[in-house]
Amino acid sequence: MNTFYIINLNSFSVRVELYMGFQISKPLTPMWNELVDRTVSSHGFGRRPALLTACTTQLIAGFTAPFCPNYITFTLVRFFNGAAVAGALLTSFILMIETTGISKRELMNCIVSVPLSVGEMIMPMFSYYLRSWTRYSFGLALPNLVFLVLFFIVPESPKWLISVGRLEEASLIMTKIAKWNRLPTEDMMDRVKIIAFESNVDAHKNVKATYLDLIKVQEIRWKNIGCCLTWFILGLSFYGSNQYIGQTSPNVFVAIAMAGAIQIPGILLSGYLCKRFGRRHTLIFLFILCGISNALLSVPDDWYYFKLFIGSTAVSSASGAFATVYMFTTELFPTVARNMAMGASSTVSRIGSMLAPFIAGLTATGPWIPPTVFGLVPFAAAVACFCLPETRGKKLKDHFGET
Questions:
Q1: Where would you tag: which of 2, 77, 141, 371 has the fewest CB atoms within 10 A of its CB?
Q2: pTM of the shown model
Q3: Which region among 34-43, 143-152, 360-369 has the lowest average model confidence (pLDDT)?
């Protein structure tokens, strides 16, 4: 393939095709989560192998893309690359939360979320200097080599190991973590046994967890419904907010870089609010702010700077809500079902993201329709958040019986 395919489409089609091309692979996220949760049942692998499998797939797909002989092959490779990215993102986030102390979760959430926006800011630099699609694909694949380091430094989740009764392995990892943080390491095995006893591991370690449990168990059912609704609306709202970022600059490279930069204040704000007021109230506030901002985007185009400010506020608040809901959902569900719950919620979110471009395209029918829809749906998510329990300062549960 000597030249890349250039297709003349109207702006709406370009927006829909590009965004849906990125999002269409995201529903594969549960594949990676299913791998993890099946191993919870069979005492197999755990978080670490699932993460490394996703990262390896991403690495291979990244370096395969520049050598694709035709468009169909290129699309297929990018499809698996997108699925691997989604799986690595969720699994790594869960691994981070499960190995972080209660008092540091908000800080670690920001540390993990901000680099995503920084990556979006840096990406235009690759596309600016690497104008050939082959060079661009190869340039984007090079950072994936960092994943090789993960094979040597990433531990298994002690939380997961304890939940399946592998106490000795959990003790060794926790000892290493304690030494790294210059904390006492004496009687670590006894501490692990106490944690296992409090979680009643012996009674639950042979219990299989499936996606049906997210519906069958009453307490989990309502949490799952609330989270799925929240994630769906957030996926819809986030794209609805981002459609206005192109107005920040006539230069597409600058516009994309600014889109990433705008997200950072919202992420940092969400970390502070979660620490001070809790997850639920933070989400409610950010959803309301996002809804009001999206609704105000219906003002005339002549109000350029006002519209730019409101659009930036909408994107920033939606980004903060995303960072919050990742942590909130992880804390709501027990270890044996955490990945499944995150996978289900994330998949529903991508469905919302795929629907959003079509709503944005209704501008031709009525300019007021997209701002109205994108302005109202966040309020529904805010209402759904009232049905979810607060998790600030609470330890992670391991089994359904503890919930």
A1: 2
A2: 0.82
A3: 34-43
